[in-house]
From TrEMBL:
Residue numbers binding substrate: 64
Residue sites binding Mg(2+) per the record: 7
GO cellular component terms listed in the entry, alphabetical order: cytoplasm
Protein name, UniProt field: Acetate kinase
Keyword hit for Magnesium: yes
Gene it is expressed from: ackA
Residue sites binding ATP per the record: 14, 181-185, 255-257, 300-304
Entry keyword 4Fe-4S: no
Annotated localization: Cytoplasm
Pfam families named among the record's database cross-references: Acetate_kinase
Amino acid sequence: MKIAVINSGSSSLKFKLFEMPSGRVIINKLVEHIGEPNSSVKNHFEAIESLHVNFADIDAVGHRVVHGGEKFRNSVLIDDEVIEAIKDLIPLAPLHNPANLEGIKVIRHKAPDTVQIAVFDTAFHATLPKEAFVYALPYEMYEKNQIRRYGFHGTSHAYLLQEAAALLNKKVQETNIITLHLGNGASACAIKNGKSCDTSMGFTPLEGLVMGTRCGDIDPAIALFMQNELGLSADEVDNTLNKKSGLLGLCGENDVRNIERRSDERAKLALDIMVRRIQKYIGAYMIVLEEVDAVVFSGGIGENSSYVREKVMNNKILKNIKSLVIKTNEELQIINECLWVLKNRKITQA
Ligand code: ADP
């Protein structure tokens, strides 16, 4: 059986083809600079053409889709209705969902009979209780305008849960952990009895931890001050908070390897601010969970930086909690989701 995993972004497309059940990688390609000036790849159709893959030969194609809104609580088989629903969610993920859809549509066009499955970044957090996902804003902004916490990185947190439960020798549904996905984007998740019950990213991936270039939690009035007093346009504020802040904004670069090697004050401060934010979230989630089996470190920083891990856990309270380092594998999680959808499909068809 052949299963492909596609992560179709606005300017890049990652494609991996796996032979299952062996897990052998048959093709692994990355197409970059899609639609950029002077690029030879004008659009997603050309990007997918350039892979030279016969999609009719593939049993299932799993797509990473960033936003599933409130509608998608699980991975689903893609049909016309699902495509419309992903389209309806574009206002919530204006950069990501259109690019994800492009990938889906091109493959539908090239191989209409090939099964496609959408795996949503938000779906793992569908179990958040209302007190965790409703913001203290006018309530109709949740009801009418869909403003709420959605959470992201769900595929990674779900994978980490499975792996952590196995390492802890516990049933998934009895596992209580705090997962930290610390990559360029970063998020924390409180998992109670195998379910996401709080997470640090919110309405967008901007909220929460200090990230490579995103500020994470700030006083929201700062955004207005930037507009009203500093004269930045809404787009400039967006760009500042998402692309010029975080570690980059604090010390001029966002590669933690380099920052760790520096000895200047600003580099040290950037890491201290990042670590303190992580600790604050762990503290908050310990209260939410009441029992914590382990804190799980993952993502490029969590997996590789013993400096960051030790600084985070170097605390009287945290010292008594087990910490695990698990290499995340979102692609494997997407494959497992595809297998789950295919199995359920067979059951409903039988
Ligand atoms: P992305 O979110 O883009 O997938 P990754 O999960 O690959 O990002 O994480 C990127 C981050 O991991 C960068 O900040 C990088 O510096 C950091 N990183 C990778 N290797 C190491 C290392 N050996 N020590 C410290 N940080 C590392």
